[in-house]
Specification:
The complex is a heterodimer of chains A (301) and B (261).
Chain A lengths: L1 E11 L5 E6 L2 E3 L3 E5 L6 H8 L7 E6 L2 E2 L4 H6 L1 E4 L11 H12 L5 H8 L15 H13 L5 E5 L7 H18 L2 E6 L2 H4 L5 E6 L2 E7 H10 L2 E6 L2 H11 L4 E3 L2 E4 L4 H13 L4 E7 L3 H10 L1
Parallel strand pairs in A: 4-9, 4-10, 7-8, 8-9
Antiparallel strand pairs in A: 1-2, 1-3, 1-5, 5-6, 10-11, 12-14, 12-15, 13-14
Helix pairs in contact in A: 3-4, 4-5
Chain B lengths: L2 H13 L4 H23 L4 H6 L3 H35 L3 H4 L6 H37 L12 H28 L3 H18 L12 H10 L11 H22 L5
Classes of the chains: A alpha/beta (301), B mainly alpha (261).
């Protein structure tokens, strides 16, 4: 069961420039879905379309198995969101900002101190938001998104402006909400490193196209597949000839020789071969691409 | 009125707390009475004859409307309406409002109701201010008699209602401009331009076509100084027609706006 599904979602600017090209997303219920892409990739546009903030041009959007257009109010009742910059009224206090939304959601007033506590703003409930730092505003925006005890959270770069400690705190909070309350979380970021410790599923978008979608495990699998045995010798050209006679896929990469990942015994055999040909081996190791380089690789290709 | 709309209005009303629009309405309501009171307190010698007049309150109230009708009220509406809609733009809050579980129509009507109510509040404050500003010199100076006869509430309410109706087209068009255009200068600039044009149009034969001038026209009618008559309808009906037209236009364009929030 998917909590959010989009099908062939495309969007164009008035100038005719394509922002999204047939995006088909599937966010499983109960997952934490990391929506990754560099700045300008189309993440925010996708999220704005999902939330109905942009008029849909083509494609289909379904949330909780329902078409958004036909069930807008019902869907929004079960959803919390934070899109780009915080949406808070500077002349009101943190508690007043939550109170005016509590009126609309008609959730219990006790939720206000609860969510302030969750994001660590209990002490500043009666401080005007205009006096808040960006990090505090971001925390309050997360509190706003949690006010109605949503089943789905859509968060667009929620850790913007937070200090490293704040990032860790929020990550733990999202994990807890997901595990304890079963909230599905769709979280966008341009940094894989920032969310790889949090997400169960990943979608990678670049220039309006979805390049990868799957579980984090799938992405790690891709990482393992892309690892290689790297070596360097006193004469790489001759070493390449020797290696290609055994492993035709051997190649030179950035001043080193690269072979597909091998078992330990095969690595030892490679070393022996090179020594037998009078070559001196300076470096021999399996190098794994980290997730960040896989992401960069996908984006570059 | 359904419950969702009521909650939405309450929420919108809470947003105006301590906002620039709130202060503008509060100070704007008392501004003219305060100035008039100050003038009366300075010219003590004219007070006794003025206060002895049988229709003192009506004349006093119209005195207040002289500056309000042409300039202060239209400008106040332009500013207050722009500031209320600007609350969302300035705080990047449209996207939050439009992802809450309320229909687009509810959001539109709730905000509009608050703007209408704030203008009503301005009228109430102005009337209360005029009463106290009129009574203060009599209370303060022993030789000035308290105006004869009771305060003509009924007539004052009637006159206020008339002015309120003539202000509705300005409110509707300004609401549309403020909600539709992100740039504060569009609504403010257009408003200032229209108010200026309306004052100029007061001496024009077809002044009845310019809805921003209806307050001034009504005031001149009350004073018996209006030279031209509308061939079609009374300005109150025209004001209501413009109000309905601008509201409908605002609503349709708001609903069909491609990018919301």
């Amino acid at each position: 069961m998917y909590c959010i599904e989009t099908e062939n979602l495309s969007h164009q600017f008035a100038s005719g420039k394509n922002i999204l090209d047939n995006i088909t997303l599937q966010v499983p219920s109960g997952s934490i879905y990391g929506f990754l892409g560099p700045n300008g990739a189309g993440k925010t546009t996708t999220l704005r379309l999902i939330l109905g903030l942009l008029k849909k041009q083509s494609g289909r959007i379904s949330i909780f198995g329902q078409t958004f257009e036909k069930n807008r109010v019902g869907i929004l009742r079960k959803l919390g969101s934070l899109i780009e910059t915080p949406s808070l009224y500077g002349h009101l206090t943190a508690a007043e900002n939550l109170l005016l939304l509590q009126k609309i959601y008609q959730c219990p007033k006790t939720r206000i101190p609860e969510v302030l506590e969750l994001v660590g703003l209990s002490d500043t409930a009666h401080k005007k938001v205009s006096q808040f730092s960006l990090g505090m505003k971001q925390r309050l925006s997360i509190a706003v998104a949690l006010l109605n005890q949503p089943e789905l959270l859509i968060l667009d770069e929620p850790t913007n402006g937070l200090d490293p400690n704040g990032i860790i705190e929020m990550r733990e909070l999202f994990k807890r909400l997901n595990q304890e309350q079963g909230i599905t979380i769709l979280i966008s970021s341009h940094l894989l490193g920032e969310i790889e410790k949090l997400v169960s599923h990943v979608g990678i978008i670049h220039k309006g196209q979805l390049l990868f979608e799957g579980t984090l495990q799938d992405l790690i699998q891709k990482q393992q597949e892309s690892s290689s045995l790297k070596l360097s010798t006193n004469d790489n050209a001759r070493a390449l000839q020797v290696l290609q006679s055994i492993y035709p896929e051997a190649q030179q990469q950035n001043g080193k020789l690269a072979l597909p990942p091998l078992a330990n015994a095969e690595i030892a055999a490679v070393n022996r071969q090179l020594l037998q040909h009078g070559l001196e081996v300076y470096h021999l190791a399996i190098e794994q691409n980290d997730l960040e380089s896989i992401f960069m690789e996908l984006v570059k290709n | 009125m359904n419950a969702t709309l009521l909650y939405s209005i309450q929420s919108e009303w809470m947003k105006t707390k301590r906002s620039a629009a709130f202060w503008l309405v509060l100070l704007g309501g008392f501004f003219t009475p305060a100035i008039l009171c100050l003038i009366y307190m300075v010219y003590i010698e004219k007070l006794a004859p003025a206060y002895s007049e049988p229709k003192f309150w009506i004349k006093w109230y119209l005195n207040g409307w002289e500056s309000m009708a042409y300039l202060l009220l239209p400008m106040g509406i332009v500013l207050a309406t722009s500031l209320i809609a600007q609350l969302e733009y300035k705080n990047n809050a449209w996207k939050q409002v439009l992802t809450t579980p309320q229909s687009l129509s509810t959001v539109f009507v709730a905000k509009y109701t608050v703007v209408l109510f704030m203008m009503f509040q301005l009228f109430v404050l102005f009337t209360i201010g005029m009463y106290f500003a009129g009574a203060l010199p009599a209370w303060y100076y022993g030789h000035v008699p308290y105006p004869k006869g009771p305060f003509p509430w009924q007539r004052i309410v009637q006159m206020s209602t008339s002015f309120y109706i003539t202000s509705l087209p300005i409110l509707a068009l300004q609401y549309f401009l403020s909600v539709y255009f992100k740039n504060f200068m569009v609504s403010l600039g257009a408003g200032i331009l229209m108010v200026t044009a309306a004052i100029t149009a007061l001496s024009w034969r077809y002044v009845y076509l310019v809805p921003y001038s209806y307050g001034g026209v009504h005031f001149m009618q009350l004073q018996g100084r209006m030279r031209f008559k509308s061939n079609v309808l009374d300005i109150h009906y025209l004001a209501l027609i413009y109000f309905a037209g601008f509201t409908l236009l605002a609503y349709l364009l708001y609903l069909t706006k491609k990018e919301k929030g």
